[in-house]
Amino acid sequence: MSYQENKTITSIVSGIILMSVYAINAWGKFQAGAAPAEAGQIWAALMLKFIALGIGVSIALQILFHILYSVVVAAREKMRDENCGDEVIEKTIKQEMVEDERDKLIELKSLRAGFVLAGIGFVTALIYLALGYPVAVMLNILFFSFFAGSILEGAVQLFYYRRGV
Amino acid sequence: MAQKLKIENNIRKLRFFADEMTQQTLAEKAGVSRQTIIAMEAGKYSPSLELAFRVARVFGVSLGEVFTCEGEEPAD
Asked: How many Å separate Cα B7 from the centre of its chain?
């Protein structure tokens, strides 16, 4: 599996973890009555907290992934040739992480799929609001559709890497 | 809408005639990842015109000798 595919899987996993943690947290707060459906301010604050947490977790996971990937590549090179120097390992790592026109094309195509889902979520959220549902429903639909959009983006990316563009 | 053309390539053959050049070496010379070369060889990715020229330049041949359309003979 290539570096790009592994990176995509890492971002999908971090997205799923965050979405699950948010769902558990939000449901718990709602059940306990700490976040009533009409209290838009509480929900907005909770979502903002999770957006900040999401950015932090994604950055941390990507850094961790880079370190682990470099270690794996170095170990693989050492197993292939015990006498290979640091320069060879460094060069191999750099080559594995090259991002070219194919990666950019796949990124653009998957981004489009993600935006479509987020857009559908936005319209659905507006419909719910127009139908008189509480603001928390609208905010949660919006929030989940953006999360789902980013997960779909990763899935589409993997699909194009496997099937070809 | 125009029918999509199937682009074929002779990269594997050209690598063979270039002293069995590795995909990694070709990737380095063309400035792309090895995965892109693998995808191109397998016909899973049609490169941009620029990359196509770069690949042809690595082998020192014309574009027509590297890429052909389905049913077309490679240029000499």
From this structure: 10
